[in-house]
Design a protein that fits this description.
13 helices; six-stranded mixed β-sheet; 520 residues; Immunoglobulin-like; Rossmann fold
Length: 520
Amino acid sequence: MAADSYDAGYQSNAGKTNAVQSFGAEKSKEARGITYADEESYHPYDEYSTEEYKDIEESGFKMVKNSPLSTFSADVDTASYSNLRRMINDGYRMEDIPAGAVRIEEMINYFDYHYKSPRGSDPFSVTTEIGDCPWNQDTKLMMVGIASEEVSLDEIKGNNLVFLLDVSGSMSDEDKLPLLQKAFSMLADNLTENDCVSIVTYAGDDRIVLEGASGSNSRKIKKAINNLEAGGSTAGSKGIKTAYKIAEEYYIKGGNNRVILATDGDLNVGLTSESELASLIEEERETGIFLSVLGFGTDNIKDNKMETLADKGNGNYAYIDGVREAKKVLVDEMGATLLTIAKDVKFQVEFNPAIVKGYRLIGYDNRALAAEDFNDDKKDAGEVGAGHSVTALYEIVTVEDDMPKDTGIDLKYQDNNQTSKETQRYSKDMEWLTVSIRYKKPSASKSELMEIPVTGKSYVRNNSDSFYFAAAVAEFGMLLKNSEYKESISCADVIDLLEQSDIRGDEYKEEFYELVDLMR
């Protein structure tokens, strides 16, 4: 066990490699379309599925005396949840779901927790809540949530949007190009005369289908979209360069400038590796143009590549598994999807060793940052859209007192000479930790800082509906991922936890309940 890890009663398993997980190679015999012996349900995918996911090692417990700072990038992507929903609805069993497809933070952040709105000049509100951990009686669970300010698209000078659409042969299925056309037609119906729309397609080569059209001319935009046909190979890198070039030509100063890439991620001509695509998109993001990535389809989706493009391109990533999800992402949450209100958003939590002995950040496994990255304005991090919320859960182990280790960084709760600044016994007013947030305004190069101390008053015996729901989502994610920290929980335990949260009237939370029930 590493020097900065903490056991917390868990038995450690061998870590996973940080490699690409090929779905087709991992699927069980039952997942290849063979009827199950004990039921009539079957899995519709065959053994030739080539879906790919990053297989990221799960974060473990850390000791506060050795690692007092937990630092990570914000993540507002939701692709993992809607993709998992697709798998479950299509008949996957727990063991058929690749661990790399399960990003617990994206599952949690798919839902609305009704955080309070920001006040004053701050772009975010911050909500914290601590309760007993539902799956481990020896730990507690902390929920940290931020909500960004709501900004109407009517308040900005306009949207300069470039639709970058994959029309290669792999996009011919009904849940790919035909669904894409429905999705972007819905978006077109919600644009105005202040908006500018261009359409670039790519297959074996890239093509400019529409350039500089007024958003008020939805009929022209939809006609261009609906006339598209799929065929050919996938030279995505050429299309990316062309799309950014057009976005620069029609750049709206003070407006929202964004490329919206819709694809299954199966890039097989030109720059095709994750590292090559990352370098390309990092170069393009310097133009000040943001990126949204929308994933479509099944069997050959390359989730690893789409996530890389969004992460490196100052963007967000959603997976569209049906018309309802398209409406949610491109119409109902249009501002959050299209309008960035803060970029390079980073979190850093400093734990007080007089209260907290160990902690584990749940999810955000590929969003971890070094402690020194928090104050480094050159370090890229996540973007947050208008009306977006970000939620993080920590499993924590409390202690009355502990001896810290010299970190070389000025700390709030402990001196570098290994003497705790706080040695008094626990009280409600005593600080457990401090949540710090760094962010930049969309056009700024220098970050701003928010700091929020969290005291014992945040710990309550009877928690909120949002707390219980987020905990239930985390439990389900750990089950799907086969986490070594899942203890003995089952889908029945997740259902029990959901029943402690009032989810009536929220169609997405009610649907989540049904998905868990399907997996029982």
